[in-house]
Write a structure and sequence with these properties.
The structure is a homodimer. By secondary structure, the first copy, chain A, is of the alpha+beta class. Chain A has one domain: Arc Repressor Mutant, subunit A (Orthogonal Bundle), CATH 1.10.10.10. Chain A is built from six helices and three strands; from the N terminus they run H-H-E-H-H-E-E-H-H. In chain A, strand 2 and strand 3 form a beta hairpin. Chains A and B meet through helix 1 and helix 6 of A and helix 1 and helix 6 of B. Chain A binds a DNA duplex through helix 4.
Chain lengths: 107, 107
DNA sequence: CTTATTGTTCGATCAACATAAAACTATGAA
DNA sequence: TTCATAGTTTTATGTTGATCGAACAATAAG
C-alpha cells in the first residue's frame, strides 16, 4: 500500500502551531538544513539522532504545514512548502531562515 | 529601592529563545495587544488571568528582548522593542504581527 | 503610620512534549 | 523467499514550563 500523508491546505495552516513547530532547536535545524538542500529524506538529516526522533519531528513539521513529504520507493523525500507559507504568512519563513543565518547558535 | 530590570542588548537577543517566547498563545496575545496600544502596564493586559501569570509572561518577554519595562511609580510600563528587533532579525516581528492579524485564532 | 495599588516571588501542581528503545510496516533487491 | 533499507508506531521516561494561590516588596496617598 502506498503510504500517503495528509498535508494541510493553506487555510488549515495556523500561526501558533507554526510558531510552536519552529521553536524547537532540532526542527529549526531541520528546516534550515532542508532549505539549503532543497529536498532530503529523513536519514540524510539524522545527525546522530535516533530515527524515531527524526520521524517525530518530520511528522510535526508536516502536520503544521511546513514541509511536504513525497514517497518514492522506500524513501520519503521532504521539501519545504515555502511558496504556500509565503502566501499564507508573508515574510514569516523567510525572516526565520534569514534569522538562522544571522544567529545559527540554536542547535 | 528603584526596581530595575535587565534588558538584553541586541547581540544578546537570539533566535531560538525569541521564537520560543512568541510560540505561546498568551504571550502572542500580549505582544499583539501591546503593539496596538503602544505602551501598557501589566494590569491593563490581564484578561481575567491572575497577576502572577502575567508577571511570568512579561518576564519571559523581557528576558528574550521582546519588550522593555519602564518603571514609573507603582506601575511598570511595557513597550515592544520593535526597532531593535527589526535591526537584529529583520522582518521577523513584523511578519508575526501581520500573521496574527491574518489569523488571530490563537488565544 | 496605615492603607491601597501594582507587581514580583515562592511553591506546588499538572500537562505537554522531546527523547529513545523496540517492534513493526513497506518497498526493493538478491 | 529472504534479506536489507527506510521510516513509522508504540510505549515509556524524564524534563520543561504554564498556571495559580499566597505571601511579599515597593511606591503613593490619606
Amino acid at each position: 500500500m502506498a503510504t500517503l500523508y495528509y498535508h494541510p491546505t493553506p487555510e488549515e495552516v495556523t500561526l501558533l502551531p507554526l510558531l510552536r513547530a519552529v521553536a524547537d532547536p532540532v526542527r529549526l535545524g531541520i528546516i534550515c538544513h532542508l532549505h539549503s538542500l532543497g529536498e532530503a529524506n529523513c536519514t540524510t538529516l539524522l545527525r546522530g539522532r535516533p530515527k524515531s526522533s527524526m520521524s517525530h519531528h518530520f511528522q510535526v513539521l508536516r502536520e503544521v504545514g511546513i514541509l511536504h513529504t513525497r514517497v518514492e520507493g522506500v524513501q520519503h523525500r521532504n521539501t519545504l512548502r515555502l511558496t504556500m507559507l509565503e502566501e499564507r504568512f508573508p515574510g514569516l519563513m523567510s525572516s526565520i531562515l534569514r534569522g538562522y543565518a544571522i544567529d545559527p547558535a540554536s542547535p
